Amino acid sequence: MKKFFLLFLMISVALFACKKETQLEEDLDDIKSFLKARNINAEKSDNIYYEVVSEGRGEQCEAGDTVAFKYKLYILNKPDSLISSSTEKALTYLLPSIIPNVTETSDVYTAGFQIGITKMKEGGISRFYVPSSYGFGNTKVGGEEYANLIYEVELCEIKHYDTRH
């Protein structure tokens, strides 16, 4: 009986000692699996994946720039169901001077969106694959908590931040 108890105790300790994945690690694994299953070539930067659909021209967008863009938003588990979009008229947005690593926000301009758009050039089209902690966190999106996001963005115009003022 003591041997059984000791074996049970050792197995229990071993199981509890195993590091549980964080939400971010779980999300990134889901995104990698999604990309691999669809043979999508996307690069990872600052915990988001981005896929360049069309390169664009000129200089890359930077934090502090004002951008005009059109977007479509999907969730990873329902990539054919449009959640939100602005495709008729470009929206204008001033990127913060410092892009956060994570954010709790209720608007479309999540940290993942902000990071992704800084990887783009004017006239370019890209897709960003954003883990939930760089998106809306546990807020339900498309009926799903901890939703990993897919942004499809066309960067229409960049007004670069003028460092002289």
Overall description:
It is a single chain. The protein has 165 residues and is of the alpha+beta class. The chain has a single domain, classed as Chitinase A, domain 3. 23% of the residues lie in helices and 33% in strands. The chain is built from three helices and eight strands; from the N terminus they run ααβββββαβββ. The protein has a six-stranded antiparallel beta sheet with strand order 1-2-7-8-4-5. 28% of the residues are buried. The N terminus is likely disordered.
In short:
The chain is of the alpha+beta class.
Q: In terms of quaternary structure, what is this?
A: single chain
- CATH fold type: Chitinase A, domain 3
H-E string: HHEEEEEHEEE
Described by the principal axes of the CA atoms, the overall outline is globular
What is the CATH domain class?
Alpha Beta
Low-confidence stretches: 2-20
Average of per-residue pLDDT values: 83
The proportion of strand residues reads: 25-35%
Main β-sheet description: 6 strands, antiparallel
CATH architecture: Roll
Helix segment tally: 3
Helicity range: 10-25%
> Structural class of the secondary structure composition?
alpha+beta
Cα gyration radius (Å): 20 Å
Secondary structure: elements and pairs:
Elements: H1 2-17, H2 23-37, E1 43-45, E2 48-54, E3 57-60, E4 66-75, E5 84-94, H3 111-117, E6 121-122, E7 125-130, E8 149-159
Antiparallel strand pairs: 1-2, 2-7, 3-6, 4-5, 4-8, 7-8
Task: Please supply descriptive tags for the structure shown above.
165 residues; alpha+beta; Chitinase A, domain 3; 6-stranded antiparallel β-sheet; two-stranded antiparallel sheet; 3 helices; 8 strands; 33% strand; globular; disordered N terminus
